[in-house]
Amino acid sequence: VTARHPMRHVFDAPSVIKTKRDGDALSGPAIDWVVDAYTNGDVADEQMSALLMAIFLRGMDRDEIAHWTAAMVASGDRFDLSELRRAGNPLVTVDKHSTGGVGDKITLALVPIVMACGATVPQAAGRGLGHTGGTLDKLESISGFTAELPKLRIHQQLSEIGGAMFAAGQLAPADRKIYALRDVTGTVESLPLIASSVMSKKIAEGTAALVLDVKVGSGAFMKGLAEARELAHTMVDLGAANGLATRALLTDMNRPLGATVGNSVEVAESLDVLAGGGPADVVELTLRLAAEMLEVAGLDGRDPADTLRDGSAMDAFRELVTAQGGDLSAPLPLGAHSETVVAGRGGTIGDIDAMAVGLAAWRLGAGRARQGERVQHGAGVRIHRRPGDPVAAGDVVFTLYTDTADRIPAAMATLESGWSIGEPPGRTALVIDRIVA
Ligand code: URA
Asked: For the chain, what percentages of helix, strand and coil (3-state, to nearest 5) are there?
């Protein structure tokens, strides 16, 4: 027995897997052991894959989720951002996290808006997961941008400019490994695994306040309102138990957000939002989340919409990108091959299904099918006509972009079933509910 692995002889991976496979709760020590042993390479990927599938199928109770989250936090460093909290305003560090959506580029404009309103935003962001995009994959389509910042640099950047968007890295390294494994093993859509993944990063990063965007609908990991609500409550409670002022919005993810889904195409759309334009749904949700962030941080003096009008949010974005090596004057990449989908007849665009568009973008190369695969920064889908828009026969409805032409047929086939010309859909509220501790 070594000091590093004091429990090495007490547990073994097959027994832990079988416990969960058979529907029993995992004990705290078993969770501590398996998360630590996997992070250190003593439990193999195939063993953790089997355990994740058992958790996916059997679930976890609240105690197990809290313990699994704590074990993931303990797998790495924990930042102390207390000195960044300004005198008289103890909640001034505030972050946001989405549970994953299609066309969900909200973080890109939201972080600089909230920075421009005076908050400090430590944004531990993620990569694409399943058919949903990742903030880091999107940001890395900006020439030179790096998200792999060491702890000292994150602290320095937060003190100097009030914001950083970074790979979790040394924060919750267990999540980094488990997240990448879930992405390629069909174990993403699991309440305990999502709650622990999101909250371990946020607890470890040391933010004082947190706003969660819990997605619900076809393009979300939680398809039904009841399970999304349960996920939101679980995360808000985990936040409260760990000293984070946390609240959540439940938001609609039956349709893609905005008019682009992919990596660089979403960055371009976010720049439109920061310039005062952009699609109405993206602007609406961004400003709602900004207002929540400012309120939970105790900074409700400034109207976030002003930062779009006066250019201060764009300035904050440029400052952040430059601080992280990015060059916004360089052209954003766009897939070398493109294909359009046109309307066969005139009418009105019916619904557009978020899952179909997300999967099409993933098939074009915007996401990963294997661990560690490089994403194509120029891959994605542009939506030219949105639900309720009129179309004439021959109008372009979607453009698909990829660097790999042979990916196009599968993406076209995926998209085909995801839209129609017909009855204009009823308007769904973008923000469905708000959950506070
Ligand atoms: N975001 C995360 O960080 N983890 C998840 O599991 C889903 C969304």
From this structure: 45, 15, 40
Sign of CA dihedral 34, 39, 44, 49: positive
- Helix (H/G/I), strand (E/B), else coil: 236: helix
Q: Is the CB of 133 under 6 A from ligand 1?
A: no
* Residue with CA closest to ligand 1 atom 2: 198
Choosing from 98, 129, 191 the residue with most ligand 1 atoms within 8 A of its CB, the one to mutate for a pocket test is: 129
Give strand pairing partners of 391. Answer: 347
Angstrom distances, CA of residue 434 to CA of 8, 24, 108, 399? 44, 33, 22, 35
Ligand 1 binding pocket includes 198 (Cβ within 6 Å): yes
| 54 vs 47: CA distance, rounded Å | 11
Q: What are phi and psi of 272, to 5 degrees?
A: -60, -45
The pairing of strands 209-216 and 163-167 is: unpaired
Under DSSP, is residue 293 helix (H, G, I), strand (E, B) or coil? helix
> What is the residue-level pLDDT of the chain in tens, covering all 437 positions?
344 555 555 899 999 999 999 999 999 999 999 999 999 999 999 999 999 999 999 999 999 999 999 999 999 999 988 877 655 556 689 999 999 999 999 999 999 999 999 999 999 998 888 889 899 999 999 999 999 999 889 999 999 999 999 997 679 999 999 999 999 999 999 999 999 999 999 999 999 999 999 999 999 999 999 999 999 999 999 999 999 999 999 999 999 999 999 999 999 999 999 999 999 999 999 999 999 999 999 887 789 999 999 999 999 999 999 999 999 999 999 999 999 999 999 999 999 999 999 999 999 999 998 888 899 999 999 999 999 999 999 999 999 999 999 999 999 999 999 999 998 778 779 999 999 98
User: How many residues in total does the chain contain?
Assistant: 437
> Could you tell me if the CB of 190 is within 6 A of ligand 1?
no
The answer to whether residues 209 and 123 touch, using CB atoms and an 8 Å cutoff, is no
Q: How many CB atoms lie within 10 A of CB 310?
A: 12
Q: Annotated catalytic sites, by residue?
A: 97, 175, 182, 197, 201
Centre of ligand 1 to C-alpha 127, Å, is 9
